[in-house]
């Protein structure tokens, strides 16, 4: 995907004229607001946010609009699309149809052409909050209901909401036993990041508040020059800064030993994780990831013994925080790990995918592992080729299939990667400030990632 230009949010019925179209919305109206999140001249990426402005929960929504004959939608996500000529209908999926009073959700689409939606309705009424032109206005005001007296379940930071996490069956649960699906992003290899985006507290809180980020992954490079083995003091400082920022911001943090041949440095990994577990293992925020992507090594004779050694060091000081275990072939062969899992509690297994390269056959491996009883965590993924998107291409329909699969199975995820560059998976464009505020700096697959965190 080429570099895209961010433009301003508009009301659905508006034109691309810049600025926000302010609409006086009746308290009883459901609304749908259109925005162009990226524009490349002969096409754009659009988003529609549906808000329940009623005083009671709704359990489904339907947005309809028309586009000019010269404009068409090529891809969409987070909604079921139906097309009849130039008329488009989008209905909720199984997981985003129920909206509490005042709650919102969104869906996105790619457009060929420059035309914008017209004649928009949401649940049969005008997207701007009134009734359609063909429907007479109501003769009596709608009944009003006092707002709920209890706070919504999403109040507070992620850690305040969920507390100590644990593995329950093949998924993750919070302190009360309710299923949790964490969504967030991974840092770049910390030794190679262009700026300390992942280490900045302001950026982390901005992502929490604006992207609904719940977890950040600290991808600490181990083997290359300048990484942990050659500069351990610098690498530790980076990781511990991210941990402490996560505690302050109330989000979860994955400590990732970002290596491909970790079996060659097992003693260093044991010492590293044992030390951090003693100092941070009492916190509910921390998730351990002892081996990012093992190469094509034997699970039973190489990878599993390594995990057993590192998990033992962690459990000596931290009996309950989740540990996510890398699997063979760049963390793809979760079905192989399922045949001989590591003994212990609160253990999950890593599955990585890149949607231009990996599709249904890799999801089948995940399904097999789940059937065998494994709990999975996708600690790295991209809507790109497996090289991270050196060609700049994004494969969003297949990425949406992955998003739907993870949602259906309660699989948490962190998307690759928080940095600036030309790769599809670099989330930021040049000039992005280190401190956050990146609404105008999204790059590559970032709009898709952010839309699916919200």
UniProtKB/TrEMBL annotation:
Keywords: Carbohydrate metabolism, Cellulose degradation, Glycosidase, Hydrolase, Polysaccharide degradation, Signal. Residues 129-158 are annotated as: Disordered. SMART domains: CBD_II. It is an enzyme of class 3 (hydrolase). SUPFAM superfamilies: (Trans)glycosidases (SSF51445), Carbohydrate-binding domain (SSF49384). It catalyses: Endohydrolysis of (1->4)-beta-D-glucosidic linkages in cellulose, lichenin and cereal beta-D-glucans. Residues 23-130 form the CBM2 domain. Residues 133-155 have a biased composition (Pro residues). Pfam families: CBM_2 (PF00553), Cellulase (PF00150). Its EC number is 3.2.1.4. This is Endoglucanase. It comes from Micromonospora parastrephiae.
């Amino acid at each position: 995907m080429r570099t895209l230009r961010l433009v301003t949010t508009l009301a659905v019925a508006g034109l691309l004229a810049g600025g926000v179209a302010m609409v006086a919305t009746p308290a009883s109206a459901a609304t749908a607001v259109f925005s162009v999140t990226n524009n490349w001249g002969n096409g754009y990426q659009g988003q529609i946010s549906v808000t329940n402005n009623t005083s009671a929960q709704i359990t489904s929504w339907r947005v309809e609009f028309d586009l000019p004959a010269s404009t068409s939608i090529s891809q969409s996500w987070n909604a079921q699309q139906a097309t009849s000529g130039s008329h488009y209908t989008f209905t909720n999926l199984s997981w985003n149809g129920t909206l509490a009073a005042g709650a919102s959700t969104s869906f996105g689409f790619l457009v060929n052409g420059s035309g914008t939606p017209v004649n928009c309705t949401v649940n049969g009424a005008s997207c701007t909050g009134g009734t359609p032109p063909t429907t007479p206005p109501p003769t009596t005001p709608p009944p009003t209901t006092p707002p709920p007296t209890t706070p919504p379940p999403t109040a507070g930071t992620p850690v305040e909401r969920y507390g100590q996490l644990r593995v329950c069956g093949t998924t993750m649960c919070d302190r009360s036993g309710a299923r949790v699906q964490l969504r967030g992003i991974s840092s770049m290899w910390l030794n190679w990041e262009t700026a300390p985006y992942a280490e900045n507290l302001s950026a982390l809180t901005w992502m929490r508040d604006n992207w609904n980020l719940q977890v950040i992954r600290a991808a600490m490079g181990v083997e290359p020059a300048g990484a942990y083995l050659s500069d351990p003091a610098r690498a530790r400082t980076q990781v511990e800064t991210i941990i402490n920022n996560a505690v302050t911001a109330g989000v979860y943090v994955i400590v990732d030993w970002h290596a491909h041949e970790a079996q060659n440095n097992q003693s260093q990994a044991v010492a590293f994780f044992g030390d951090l577990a003693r100092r941070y293992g009492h916190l509910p925020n921390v998730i351990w990831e002892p081996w990012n992507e093992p190469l094509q090594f034997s699970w039973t004779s190489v990878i599993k013994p390594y995990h057993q050694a590192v998990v033992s060091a962690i459990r000596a000081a931290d009996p309950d925080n989740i540990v996510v275990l890398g699997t063979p072939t760049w963390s793809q062969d979760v079905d192989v790990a399922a045949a001989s899992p590591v003994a212990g509690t609160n253990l999950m297994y890593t599955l990585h995918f890149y949607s231009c390269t990996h599709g249904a056959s890799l999801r089948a491996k995940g399904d097999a592992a789940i059937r065998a009883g494994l709990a999975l965590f996708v600690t790295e993924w991209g809507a790109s080729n497996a090289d991270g998107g050196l060609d700049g291409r994004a494969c969003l329909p297949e990425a949406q299939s992955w998003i739907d699969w993870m949602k259906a199975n309660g699989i948490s995820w962190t998307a690759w990667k928080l940095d600036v560059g030309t790769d599809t998976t670099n989330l930021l464009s040049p000039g992005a400030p280190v401190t956050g505020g990146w609404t105008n700096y999204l790059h590559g697959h970032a709009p898709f990632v952010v839309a699916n965190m919200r």
